[in-house]
Specification:
alpha/beta; Ribosomal Protein L15, Chain: K, domain 2; 2 domains; 9 helices; 12 strands; 48% helix; globular; metal-binding; hydrolase; hydrolase activity
Length: 343
């Protein structure tokens, strides 16, 4: 199994990244903010960047250290990576399957089954852990609804019907997301998903968590030789990492949503960690983003038993494990893709 290395997050705006020997140097207005060795990094993520030197980008590309640039709000801008790994036969097979909508649906339905299964057990765990603080009957009814949708998905071979069933499941789950916020209710609430820009504190954190997860998933796919831009559920669109969005579906709730809920319910993040702009957009402050990213990196280090592999791995390696399993399926080593089923 791949070794989980560190991610360097650059949260201050207008920081220039340069190379000095085997180290990345952080500069702002010609002042040196820091100097870190590159040998134990797997990625660099910069928010509101000024730029990076060609020497640093070349060094990182040769050593498979990705550099991702995001806006201060957490919107993905660009990523610098090295040459594609793996053999061309795997990528050709991926493209052939993607061109066939029936075959695409057979793969995509397992992404969605994994997503809905994980959402179901998030709801079930809430009824177990907080029976006096939530409407248990409502949660149980939603859980049963998700179970019925999963049964319908098993034989689904049509992408449009697949999306329709996924939409029904998402509606049932999202209607209960606000009820899973148990602390700081005046400042944190979920009414509906808003993005570009996020319009409340919860959506601001969800957007950032999804961006980070998509970046990790894209890197995992490229690391096993797949093309992150050729998807099965998400169809081709210029500039969109469709397969990364496919693969992260099953991890949205169990990884990103639960992470955001924990920051709120454990009061790691509070109302003072957000900026509310005149156009209605809500952003994390610099200090708020630091808290968020520190907790995210700690989350990646936590161990979980992989349901299919039966091994204890770090949460940060789950996207890599799923990318490996998908590649094995496309090579015909596995009859079908095994989604990550958390419980």
């Amino acid at each position: 199994m791949k070794k989980l290395l560190n991610t360097l997050f650059i949260t201050q705006p207008d920081v220039y990244l340069s190379l000095d020997g085997d180290n990345v140097v952080l500069l702002k207005d010609q002042d040196k903010l820091g100097r870190l060795p590159l040998h134990n990094l797997e990625s660099i993520i910069a928010f509101g960047y000024t730029g990076a030197s060609p020497a640093l980008m070349g060094y990182c590309a040769e050593r498979n250290i990705s550099i991702t640039f995001m806006s201060m709000s957490g919107r993905f801008l660009a990523r610098v990576i090295g040459e594609s790994k793996g053999n061309v036969v795997l990528r050709k097979k991926q493209c052939l399957l993607s061109d066939d909508e029936v075959l695409s649906a057979r793969i995509a339905r397992n992404f969605i089954i994994g997503k809905i299964y994980n959402h179901k057990w998030i709801l079930e765990r809430m009824t177990r852990d907080y029976p006096l603080r939530i409407d248990v009957e409502r949660f149980k009814a939603a859980s049963q609804h998700l179970s019925s949708i999963m049964l319908a998905l098993r034989e689904c071979e049509d992408l449009e019907r697949l999306r329709g069933l996924e939409g029904q499941a998402a509606l049932s789950y999202n209607q209960l997301l606000d009820s899973m916020i148990l602390q700081q209710k005046e400042d944190f609430y979920f009414r509906t998903r808003s993005r570009r820009p996020p319009l409340d504190n919860v959506n601001a954190m969800l957007s950032l968590a999804y961006s980070l997860l998509a970046n990790d998933t894209a890197a995992a796919l490229e690391g096993v030789g797949l093309d992150a831009y050729v998807g099965f559920l998400h169809r081709d669109r210029p500039g969109r990492a469709s397969l990364a969005l496919d693969l992260m579906e099953e991890l949205r709730g169990v990884y990103a949503d639960r992470f955001v809920l924990s920051l709120i319910n454990k009061k790691v993040i509070n109302k003072d960690d957000f900026l509310h702009k005149e156009n209605g957009a809500v952003l994390l402050t610099v200090d708020g983003r630091k808290k968020f990213l520190t907790a995210w990196q700690n989350k990646k280090q936590e161990k979980v038993t992989h349901p299919y592999l039966g091994e204890k791995i770090s949460w940060g390696l789950v996207p890599h494990a799923q990318a490996l399993l998908l590649a094995r399926h496309l090579r015909n080593d596995l009859d079908e893709y095994p989604p990550f089923l958390w419980k």
